[in-house]
Amino acid sequence: MMLAWRSAVEATPVARRFYEQCGTKTQIEEMRFDIGEESSTRRKPTLILLMRGPESLNVWA
């Protein structure tokens, strides 16, 4: 039996290039947040989801 690992990283646009150099690939360009009305005036972070691992484990397909 062979085990396969898949890693996920939430990154800011500034850190994206670093993680791509480490072999991760962008899966979600910009994550959306549902933070509710009470926090709607707050600034939302810009995050990107990057993943690395066997393509056969692509859970986002």
TrEMBL record:
Taxonomy, superkingdom: Eukaryota
Query: What name does the UniProt record give this protein?
Result: Uncharacterized protein
Please report the organism this UniProt entry assigns to the protein.
Lentithecium fluviatile CBS 122367
